[in-house]
Structure formats: structure tokens, C-alpha cells
Amino acid sequence: MNPAQKTIGDVLLKVENISLSFGGVKALTNISFEIREHEILAIIGPNGAGKSSMLNCINGFYHPQEGTITFKGQPRKQMRPHEAAKQGIARTFQNIALFKGMSTLDNIMTGRLLKMKSGLLSSAIYKGPAEKEQIEHREFCERIIDFLEIEAIRKVPVGRLPYGLQKRVELGRALAAEPTLLLLDEPMAGMNLEEKQDMCRFILDVNDEFGTTICLIEHDMGVVMDISDRIVVLDYGRKIGDGLPDEIKRNQAVIDAYLGVQH
Amino acid sequence: MFYRESGQFKTSYRADQAIFTIPQDRIFFALFMLMAYVGVPLIASDYLYTALIIPFLCLSLAALGLNILTGYCGQLSLGTGAFMGVGAVSAWNLAYRIPDLNILVVFILAGLITAAVGMFFGLPSMRIKGFYLAVATLAAQFFLPWLFVKWGWLTNHNSSGVITAPQLELFGWVINTPMEKYLFALSIVALLALAAKNLVRSNPGRQWMAIRDMDIAAEIIGIRPMVAKLSAFAVSSFYVGVAGALYLFVYLGSTEPDGFNINLSFQTLFMIIIGGLGSILGSFLGAFFILLLPIFLTRVPPMLGFEFSTALVSHLEFMVFGALIVFFLIVEPHGLARLWQIAKEKLRIWPFPY
Amino acid sequence: MMFFLEVLIGGLMAGVMYSLVALGFVLIFKASGVFNFAQGAMVLFAGLFFVGFMELGVPLLLSLLLTAAVMVLLAGVIERLVLRHLVNQEGIILFMATIGVSFFLDGFGQTIWGSNVRQLDVGIPTDPILLFDGDILIQSFDLYAALVAGVLLAILVVFQKTRIGRALRAVADDHQAAQSVGIPLNVIWVIVWSIAGLVALVAGVMWGSKLGVQPAIVSLALKALPVLILGGFTSVPGAIVGGLIIGAGEKLAEVYIGPLFGGGIENWFAYVLALGFLLIRPQGLFGERIIERV
Is C179 in the B-facing interface, judged by CB distances under 8 Å? Predict the structure, then answer.
């Protein structure tokens, strides 16, 4: 697929002058960038560059001391993660964060909870509205299961699944919420080549078919250069590059950071 | 041989989401309920009702409540005994002060009052988890029984502090004999167990389990931890409260309110550990097991020619309980319920290995 | 004013006794991340064995040594039968397992030694001491208890600076990581539980001398839990300070607030105090703040 043919829309999320520190340690310093509708944006950088912290700020898990994040035109200062989820930000984690005691299907259905309404009483009675709702959303989740090709494991507790499949289930759980913005934290870490190819295909398909905007962190440069529309490079909590993949390849600061020039 | 899943296809999500997806399971369960409603009354003696069956029903309901909180939502509570006390004391007050109130309304209100108290003591779960929370629930366990005793109004200033359950009557049906009490309790427990099963297989249950398995991820996919935890405390306490009310009204008859002590809390905790954390069935199996064990220890050694003193039996009971808890946590954290499931899976393919 | 001081000192002294139990909790929690609910039962267990040996006519020092050996043996057995099988399990599972251990020890100790209250006299003087011309009365026993706690604290603080102490802290941080850098997890656990067992022995002797050795010690030892919440689960000095605060707090509350509610608030005051404290400062006075990451 050729990224040039895709229509990249307006700015969806705008990060302005974000600074975050823990005690005396500065994790992020004065970072600004934009994510536009429909694009696949990759954040890269050496270990400890602050990539995960950046995602944590975007979905409200960390609260940066300075700067603003504007999502869908609404600036916000402090936000809890569940509020971010409600606005349409979903994510996956570097270390898989599935609900281990639940089945694949239940994990994905849990990702769908935001769209479901049944409360305690109607759920306890079950017959009637709650059952109808369960079945309706089950259909949607089954589509995701189809899409990710995990039909065979729908009733298996995810704790028993191999790593690659767990990553896929986690993607499924994030998709179940029909997010506008999907944050992927190293979706391909620890995978073999074949699994990586599958995962790339899923990411591109999600981007293409559902029109979901994607922001991902990845270490595999081959993958990053292939699938992303734009790349932001972080190093030591600062932004050192921002541009199209080809520009990034030629950027001297980025090359230095990766080859390890003395600071 | 007759119990096989293969070849039984489900053609709708509705069928796939049923409680018992296999006809054999449905038949078995129907037979079981028939047995409970018809078979047991035909054969059980009054002694069996009062010594085993009725306390079993009450305590399995309490265990079920605790299991919702601890097994499904992952919030450990050591205050179950006190919350049963809240249910019992409020039911008694409602029945005593509003004599014409329907007994079912009394139980529901008692459950709701307990739910409110439970939510209050669940508030610390916003900030703390695990054993920190367990210590916080100990505060409830020590404070509430003290309150029952010191706040005279609660026991109508009775000098001995004893509360005695009134005559049970439901729509003109006077519930008197152990058998009638059993049927009454059975109906309430069955209904509430069904409701619990429904809860844990739909939205609320998924919220609770998400919080239990990984609270951070749960929050990031949009579950509000506060709502999920407090609803678990509320539902759990509702069940425990109704269980406490039943415990007083159909089992004990009369009690001192400070009898709802920490031992009761531990007893229910043991039930769910042995029965199976996060399993409705497990709550029942565990309650049955925990109640049967002391009877077994008292009865069996004399048959084998050993004479144990009562004190020794109670010490042995402690040892056996302790050892069993450790054993189950190590070998099968999902308890008896999981063993049952494994047995079923084995049976499913028997006699063919594949 | 003098009366207030007397109540305060009495409370502080009672607090020292809680601290003795709390110290055992902190040691095990720091070194293995296990919240050992069985510490109270270990106190009773040690007390029962000690008083049992004494009653059999074994001299005091030898009884102490024998009981110490029993506690070390117990640590080994717990490691072999329980902990080893629960490596890398969640904290709450380990916690529940120690509840099981607690019940087992409680029952086992009483099966062997019976459940009567046994007087224990190890020669600690119990005569009252009068201060300020007799205005304040304190028990000399309490002074000795405070002294013992002080010595214990000093030993433990020094111990933490040693090599083993460092290894212990590594284990607490991460079981797998500690194993991978060559720290023998099993040995460390036995050592820690032995030390906690010896602390329990000290507590058992002190509690036993004060109240007699009896099963009620187990539930009294539960008071160490609010102490820990106040002091922080990972702080040895916190256990001491927390114990003093709880001890003094509940005595003062009983004397000055109790009468308003008909008394008896001593039983729950500590827990409710801890509950309130949890809401304000979950990590305790001296605990470490935890930063969560994903």
C-alpha cells in the first residue's frame, strides 16, 4: 500500500511543550508534535528516551507538569485514563496487560464495555435488554476475532496463550472500543518475522478499513520505515527529529543518537 | 459416554452464552434442583436440616457474596462476619419496628443497608489494594460488632443484648418447621445465585474481573476503578447482608450481635479459597466442605476407635483448615470448582482419549 | 496532668509490645514481599514451646536455645512446604497462604501443649516504679520490655547493613531478578523466616511474661497490622514508632474518649485510626512511595 494515496486529515491530537519529571528525574522535556487524522505516526528512540512516558501522558496515565495536550480540538490539563478512553483513545502495552484470568472473548468484550449500557439490575435479571445487548456486541467482537484470525482461541483463558497471540488479543481488545486514536506500545516486540508480518498487516488494515489513527512505538526500523507516514524521534526526553521516513533516515541528530555519539 | 460436547453445535450467540450450553448439563442441573426441592424434604431429618443443610445455605450465600468481592474483583475482605451482622441486625430492626412488613422486603432492605455500609468501608479501596485493604476491612470487623453492643437502640435496649428473630411468615405461609425454613432459604439462595451468575457473565462481572486481573489496564480501556470497586463492594455486601439476615432468621433464631466476629470472616474466606476463587459453584462447594469437615472430625475418629476431646478436635480443625488452605493455594488456586470442571472435561471425552 | 502522663507512658509501653510483633512482619515483608499474617501465631507458637520446655524442668537458657532451634526448624519447614511452591505468585495469594499457616500453627501449638493459660516467669522484675514523688506509676516490667525492643531494633538496623541484609532487600524487590544474579532464594527465605521466628520468640517471652502464654495472644498480635499501616510496611523504625503511636493513642482514647461511648473502644480504635491514616498517606509514615508504570 502506498501512503501517498491516503488522505491525511486535520490535526487530531496536538502535544505542546510537554514536560514530565519524577522527583528530580526529567523524563520528557518540552516536547511538541501533532498527530493527524488517519495517519500512522511512529515514535522511535533509544531505550529510556521517554517514548512510553509520552504515550502515558497522551492517555492520561501520567500528568505532565507543563504543557497541554489537545485532542479533537479540546485542550486538557489533567485527565484520568478512563476519560481518555471515553474520548476515543485506546492503547496496547509494552508488557502485555491482558486480563489473564479471562478468555479471549471476554477480554475483547471487556474492551467493548464503554459502548455497553446495562447496569447492575438489568444484568442481574439478564433476560431481556441485557441479553439483547450482550448478543449485539458479541457480534461486533466476533468480527474483530475474525479480522485478527483468532477464532480458535476465543474461549481459551489468555494466560495460557503464547506471546504472539496475546499481543493480537490485546490489539483486539483495543479495537473493540472503536477508538479514534490507537496507541500501540511496541506491538512487535519479541515476535518472530512471520508474526511481525501478520501484525504489520493488521495495523495497516485497521488504519485502512476502520480509518483509525495510529501512534506506535517500535524498535524495528524496517517495520517503522515501511508502515509509518511520519516519524517522531525522541532521545533523552527531547525531540530530536520529526518528519517523513525518508527525512528521518538522513537526519544527522537521529543518526548520532542511534550510533551513540558522546553527549 | 453420554456426556459429550462434540457434535452439539450452537447456532446462535444466545445459545453460546447460556449458563449451561450442553443439554446434559441442563438435565443434570434440573435433576439436582428437583432433588433439592422434592428429594431432600422426603429424606432429611430435622437434625440434618439444623446441623448441616440450613447453615450450609446461609453460609454459601455469604461465601458467594465474598467471592464476588474477592474472587471476582480481587479485593480481599476480612470483614464478612461483621457485614453479616449488619444484615442480621438491620433485618431484625426492620421486622421488629415495622411488624407488617413483608419478610422479603425486610431481607431486601437489610441487604441494601449492608450494601451501603459495605460501600462505606470499601472507600479505602480507592487508594489501597491487597492486604492493605484487608487491614482496612478489619476496622469494620472490630468496629461494627462493638457498635451493635454499645448502641442500645439497635437491640431495643435489651439488657442481655440478645436479638430473637420473629415468626417467619410469607404471604400467609407460616414458616415453622425446619423443612419449611429450608425451602424458604433454598428459594432465596437459588434466586440470588442465579442473579450472581448473570452478573458475573455480563458487564459488571467483566468490569470486576478486569480490575482484579490488571487494574491499570482496566482504567485505560475506560473502566472507572472507583465505580467498579464500589459496585463490587455494594453487591457483595448485599449478598452478605441477606446471608446474615437468613442466618439469624432461619438458622440461629436468636443471637448476641457480637457473635458476628472475625471467626465467621475467616470461615467464609476459607470457603471461597477451598471452593474456588472466582466461581459461583465454588462458593457452594467450599461452604459444604468447611461445614462438613468438623462434623467429620467429630464423628469419624471415634468410629475408628480414637477418642478425641472436644478441645483437641477444635485444634485439629484449625490444623486441617490451615493445611488445606495452603494446599489448595499451591496445588489448585481455583479450588474444588476447578477440580469439578476437570472431572467434567475428563468425562466429556471418556472413553475415547481424543 | 500527671494522670495524663501516666496513661501516656502506660500506652507507650503497651505500644512497645505491639512493636515487637510488628518488627517480625516488617522483616519478612522487606525481605520477601510476603505479608506474613502468621507472625502472631508464631509468637504464640514460640511462647508455647518456651513455656513448655520450662515446665518440663529445662533451664531457662537451654529452653531459649531449644525454642530458637524450633523456630529455625519451623522456618525451614515453611520454606520447604509453602514458600518454595509459591515463588512469583501474587502478593494476595501469599498473604492468604500465610493465613493458612497461621491457623495451622495455632492449632498445632495447642494440640501439643494444650490451650490453658500458662504463667511464664523468666525473672523480669515486675514491681512498680514511682516517679515524681509517687505521682506517676509505671511497671518496671514495661521498662525492661522497652529495653529489649531497643536492643532488638539496634541489632536489626545493624543487620541490614550487612551483606545478607543487602541480599534480602534484593530478593524483596524481585524474586526472579535476585535469583538470576545468584542470590540463593531458598536460603535467604529460611534466614529471614528464622530471624522473624526469633523475633517472635522474643515477643512470645515478653507477652507471655506479661499476660501468660495463651491463645488470645494471636488476636492481640493482630494489632500489629494497624501499627504497620502507620509505620509503613517496609520500615523497621516505622514499626517501633507506629507501635508507640497506636499504643499511646488507644490508651488515651479509651480513657478520654471512651466514656462518651460506653467504653471498649480500645478494641477497634487502632484499626479505625489506621483506616483514616490509609486514606491520607497510604505508604505509611516511613514507607516508600510506589510509582506505577506500564
Answer: no
Indicate the helix (H) or strand (E) that contains B344.
helix B335-349
In SS3 terms, C165-207 reads as HHHHHHHHHCHHHHHHCCCCHHHHHHHHHHHHHHHHHHHHHHH
Are C101 and B326 a contacting pair at CB < 8 A? yes
Best to test chain B binding among A63, A120, A143, A185 (most B CBs inside 10 Å): A120
Q: Cα Rg for chain C, rounded, in angstroms?
A: 19
All partners of chain C with 3 or more CB pairs under 8 angstroms: A, B
Average pLDDT, chain C: 80
The 3 state secondary structure assigned to C57-123 is CCCHHHHHHHHHHHHHHHHHHHHHHCHHHHCCCCHHHHHHHHHHHHHHHHHHHHHHHCCCCECCCCC
Has residue C290 got a pLDDT over 60? Answer: no
**Mean of the per-residue pLDDT values for chain B?**
83
* Site from C45, C92, C266 to mutate, B interface, most B CB atoms within 10 angstroms: C92
Q: Which three cell numbers stand for residue B46?
A: 430435622
Rounded Cα gap, residues C98 and C254, in angstroms: 32
For the record, the C-alpha cell of C69 comes out as 532451634
Which distant-in-sequence residues (6+ apart) come within 8 Å of C35 by Cβ?
Answer: B130, B131, C25, C28, C29, C91, C94, C95, C98, C233
SS3 at position A231: strand
In B230-302 the beta strands, taken as DSSP E runs, fall at 254-255
Query: Which set of grid coordinates corresponds to residue C250?
Result: 488507644
Instruction: Give tens-digit pLDDT for C12-57.
Output: 888 888 888 888 888 888 777 788 888 889 999 999 999 888 888 8
Rounded Cα distance between A108 and A142, Å, is 9
Cα dihedral B239, B247, C105, C246 sign: positive
> pLDDT of B237-283, one tens digit each?
999 999 999 999 888 888 887 788 888 999 999 999 888 888 888 89
Q: Which helix (H) or strand (E) holds B321?
A: helix B310-331
Sign of the CA dihedral running A197, A200, A204, A210: positive
Q: Are B76 and B68 in contact (CB under 8 A)?
A: no
Question: In Å, how far are A2, A108, A185 from A204, measured between CA atoms?
Answer: 11, 20, 16
pLDDT, position B155: 75
Q: Which amino acid, one-letter code, is at B263? A: N
| A–C interface: beta-carbon pairs under 8 A | 10
Chain B CB contacts of C278 below 8 Å: 124, 127-128, 132, 135-136
